[in-house]
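Dear U.,

Please find below the material for section 3 of the report. The protein was modelled together with pyridoxal-5'-phosphate; I have listed the sequence and SMILES used, followed by the predicted complex structure.
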Amino acid sequence: MRPARALIDLDALRHNYLLARSRHGGRALAVVKANAYGHGAIPCARALAPEADGFAVAFLEEALELRAAGIDQPILLLEGVFSGEELDEVVRHDLWIVVHHAEQIRMIDHAHPALPIEVWLKMNSGMNRAGFLPHEMLPAWQRLKDCGKVGNITLMTHFARADEPDVISTTEQIVAFDAATREIPGPRSLANSGAILGWPAAHRDWARPGILLYGADPMPGAPNPLRPVMTLESSIIAVREIPQGAPLGYGARFSADRPTRVGLVAMGYADGYPRTVPNGTPVAVDGIRTRLIGRVSMDMLTVDLTDLPQAGIGSRVELWGNNIPVNRIAEAAGTISYELLCNVKRVRFEYPG
Ligand SMILES: *Cc1c(COP(=O)(O)O)cnc(C)c1O
């Protein structure tokens, strides 16, 4: 069997959830959208279910998968519904919805739900992507209250730059949210991962931790005791020596700067390892750091074993995990950990323990 696999540490996931909730206080919705950031929504939700106050996903189908798997905690749809018909399913499966646009209020107005709908009313406090403007919040809340189809209303907003501790915009968003919602009763939810760790002023009734559950620190400047959840690994499947000056791989992007012992690894961009990383990107072979050399190809990549004479066919290669932070690879690839984690595919997923 091909040795490429993603090992998912569900104990680490639970640890990170409990850390998020205790840092924030109150309750926490574990964000498991996008297949739990690529980790497997069902196993992750099942592992968190005994502790979690609830879950958040992007849209209805993601929630229905969790319900079908027996998850019976609250589940919030972060994008809300896309049509009035979806509201029937929302009620039937006891889901909570974000309302971020007037069109969604109209859908609720025209619906005939069998039970009151739980709503999280979203304000645009400065990100300018989704949500009601400050002066629209009270009228929107009033309309939802008056339509007779809505149960509890939680007030929420989302930050554009919570992972940047030295930037004023998160404080400005908090101030704007508080000013616009002063007259409106009900629980509040402001904090994503960055704000849970870095912005105590954003801590309210509910936290919405996503990336930190998976152990990728959104605030790498201030070390936080998060545990990586995914280890992406494979093995050396062939070894060859190339002389100084010899080219390696597609485009001859690497040319041996010394006589080089090259390890071939069964992992490529079709598995979700980014093609864009440069020569020198760290990998760990049997727990020891070395460098990626040559271009990442679809099914394989190559690493430098010159200084690791004991390594050979069958040696374990960690692409990211406990030895190599996924943030380090994201930086090398010019992206963020979120995108790398979401993109892992084709490899076997294993959930030890
Ligand atoms: C995805 C998402 C989160 C989680 O964000 P992280 O940065 O991963 O913690 C929280 N709130 C909303 C509205 C989201 O869409």
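For the text of the report, you could mention the following: The CA atoms of residues 320 and 326 lie 5 Å apart.

Regards,
Y.
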